[in-house]
Specification:
This protein is α+β, with helices and mostly antiparallel strands and 139 residues long. The protein has 2 domains: 40 residues, no CATH class; 83 residues, Immunoglobulin-like. The chain is built from 2 helices and 6 strands. The strands form 2 sheets. It has a 4-stranded antiparallel β-sheet. A two-stranded antiparallel sheet has the order 1-4. Strand 2 and strand 3 form a beta hairpin. It is elongated, with a radius of gyration of 27 Å.
């Protein structure tokens, strides 16, 4: 075996070892919490709505006095994903990045729940910010 082939094989093995070592070190640092992995990143799911003003039978519905809250269902869940109390008209929740298909229902003080609202799709995308740019200090 020539010296050139020998050095080439050694360098190839060192490069492979270094790549595996970097993956191990990054995984270890994520595991002990010194750096955050992508799974830890989250974004904000912001939803707004208009409260009901009448019941299905056409009678007046006063959200300020008759509404117990809003139930928001996302991505096919059969139990509410989020609950907003009282007569609020918005909700902001921290969630993992992804697509959220949501609809809402109104719940009155007697616990009666309305039919589902229209369904909307929101995408929560949480790209990391750009890193700072270091400059050299000039004397």
């Amino acid at each position: 075996m020539s010296l050139k082939n020998f050095l080439s094989r050694i360098l190839s093995r060192l490069a492979s070892f270094w790549a595996r070592l970097k993956k191990f070190i990054i995984g270890f640092l994520i595991a002990i919490g010194l750096i955050a992995g992508p799974i830890l990143y989250a974004g904000s799911l912001n939803l707004e709505w208009t409260n009901a003003v009448e019941r299905i039978d056409g009678t007046v519905f006063d959200a300020a006095t008759e509404q117990a809250g809003i139930r928001i269902y996302c991505n096919g869940d059969t139990t509410p994903t989020f609950v907003s109390a009282g007569d609020s008209t918005s909700l902001s929740e921290i969630v993992p990045p992804g697509d959220y298909e949501c609809y809402a229902t109104t719940v009155d003080m007697d616990g009666l729940e309305s039919f589902a609202s229209n369904t909307i799709t929101k995408t929560v995308d949480n790209a990391l910010p750009n890193p700072p740019i270091l400059t050299e200090e000039t004397p």
